[in-house]
Write a structure and sequence with these properties.
By secondary structure, this protein is an alpha/beta fold. Helices cover 46% and strands 14% of the residues. The protein has a six-stranded parallel beta sheet, with helices on both faces. Strands 13-12-11-14-15-16 form a six-stranded parallel beta sheet, with helices on both faces. Strands 1-2 form a two-stranded antiparallel ribbon. Bound molecules: FE(4)-NI(1)-S(5) CLUSTER with Oxygen.
């Protein structure tokens, strides 16, 4: 396959239209009598599962996928640090009234590492012929949301802060223009930032001043927030990073790494280096990183990249660079100022704009809406959508606060908790909203379920399973209100979001 054909293929992939039945979660693939397309209440699957059950099971499996990714991330950090978490971890972190509620509902894991069993039991419950009560299945999804929050995001963030330091408010650079022609460019991409952090430390050494380390996706957002390392791209632009022809090594850890990178790297001189045992890619160099060898591997990567520079041919560099303010966290957030503004009614509340940048969603109009909303609300942001704010010059540290990667949404939760404690209210009584306009991954959905359990309204902007004309959307909007005082809702029209915020 020639270079041109390969690149054309990559650009054309989006023309594949999503299956509308699968998108709404009405396709049941959980046994071999199917797949069954259960598109209305008039039909059921071969086993008799109706539409509500099929959609609920699919939602649960989606949340389980997301929770397993965040929990897997935190588990690797625990192993890397040879550390343990407390048996009372959730009790120590959660607001006491919430812990009491979750306990009453029986949705808090209690035994050490029980959360792994809970993820596996969610798959068990949703396999053919087990749990046939869609409400019960959705409660399991709420439980996995809590697991995602504490044993995934909280633990990963806390352990990374412990090992690599807390973020500090910092000016940094963002967009493809951070790739430099006169340097050896090494991109670090993924979510588990151990090798990225080791490379940051190595690249500070004088002898490595020829190296330009740049970040991609959440690993990139994390090292931007902690060290001001330039962030070249989010998920959508990861292929464009390689297409510059100026990347000597693309070092990936895990999650949100397009399998297409291997093909693309073959079209250029870029060495694709995988570093995690769970994220292997054919036609890449595998250098597994562990507690003992991280520095050796980082040195090796620098050597490989330097040697590879000789093979670089023509480059197609972008000049687009934005200055951004990053590094906000629960430790340095301007609480008093925000609370004062709230009391004076100059700020109505806080919107956390989180998650991915689904190429099927038209983002500009969403960004315009958040821009307008920022007159009345403080905007916290993480993950790939934060990059979009940065690209448009909005990450100013005044109305828009960049909190880092997706697991750093634990910082969002902590900021919500601290503000509500300071004003003496419960989280659900505050004007806090989580908005995820363009979700892609299971992780984004799991985060939504965490915040709903936390008592925060969660908005999604892409019509997936939650959009179905089933009782599920009723559950997510109305029944969540009874127990959690929150709702999960869908609104795909950016201009309608204002009305919803007022409702
Ligand atoms: O965890 S925002 S596409 S990069 S999943 Fe992935 Fe979505 Fe980007 Fe980070 Ni989060």
């Amino acid at each position: 396959m020639t270079k041109r054909v390969k690149i054309k293929l990559l650009k054309e992939r989006l023309a594949l239209q999503p299956c509308p039945i699968g998108l709404e979660g009405k396709c049941c693939k959980n046994c071999l009598m199917g797949p069954c397309r259960v598109c209305s209440y008039k039909v059921s699957g071969v086993c008799g599962a109706d539409m509500d059950l099929v959609v609920a099971r699919n939602i649960l499996r989606f949340v389980a996928g997301g929770a397993s990714a965040h929990v897997g991330h935190a588990f690797r950090m625990l192993n890397f640090l040879n550390s343990k978490y407390s048996d009372n971890y959730i009790k120590q972190k959660a607001p006491p009234y919430l812990y009491k509620l979750w306990n009453k509902l029986g949705i808090v894991p209690k035994i050490h590492f029980e959360h792994f069993k809970d993820i596996s039991e969610a798959l068990h419950a949703s396999t053919m012929g087990v749990d046939a009560d869609y409400v019960d299945i959705l409660k399991l999804a709420m439980k996995l949301g809590i697991i995602d929050g504490y044993y995934g995001m909280y633990l990963a963030t806390e352990l990374e802060d412990k090992k690599f330091g807390k973020p500090r408010i910092i000016r940094g650079k963002l967009n493809l223009g951070v790739i430099k022609k006169d340097k050896v460019n090494i991109a670090v991409h993924g979510h588990y930032p151990v090798i990225a952090e080791t490379l940051v430390a190595e690249c500070k050494k004088k002898e490595n001043s020829d190296i330009n380390l740049i970040g991609v996706c959440c690993t990139g957002a994390s090292i931007l927030a902690k060290h001001g390392i330039p962030l070249a791209a989010n998920f959508l632009l990861q292929e464009d990073v390689i297409s510059t022809g100026a990347i000597e090594a693309m070092v990936v850890d895990m999650q949100c790494i397009m399998p297409s990178l291997a093909d693309l790297c073959e079209c250029y001189h870029t060495k694709l280096i995988t570093t995690n045992e769970l994220c292997r890619i054919s036609n890449s160099t595998y250098l597994p990183v562990d507690r003992k060898n991280a520095y050796q591997i980082a040195k090796k990567i620098i050597k490989i990249a330097r040697e590879n520079l000789k093979k670089r041919k023509s480059v197609n560099l972008s000049s687009e660079v934005r200055e951004v303010v990053s590094g906000f966290s629960e430790h340095n957030f301007p609480y008093d100022w925000v609370i004062r503004m709230m009391r004076k009614k100059e700020v109505k509340g806080i919107i956390a704009v989180i998650g991915c940048v689904n190429p099927r969603v038209e983002l500009d109009s969403w960004i315009d809406v958040y821009k307008k909303l920022s007159k009345d609300y403080i905007i916290l942001t993480t993950g790939c959508i934060a990059f979009e704010f940065g690209k448009r010059g909005l990450l100013d540290g005044k109305r828009f606060f960049h909190l880092g990667s997706c697991v750093n949404n634990s910082r969002t939760a902590e900021i919500f908790k601290i503000i509500s404690e300071k004003v003496g209210k419960q989280i659900n009584a505050m004007e806090f909203i989580v908005s995820c306009p363009a979700p892609i991954t299971e992780k984004a959905v799991a985060i939504g379920f965490f915040f709903a359990a936390y008592g925060v309204d969660v908005h999604f902007g892409y019509p997936f399973m939650l959009a179905s004309d089933t009782k599920i959307s009723h559950f997510l909007i109305h029944l969540l209100r009874d127990d959690f005082k929150s709702r999960i809702y869908l609104e795909t029209n950016p201009s309608k979001i204002f009305k919803i915020l007022e409702s």
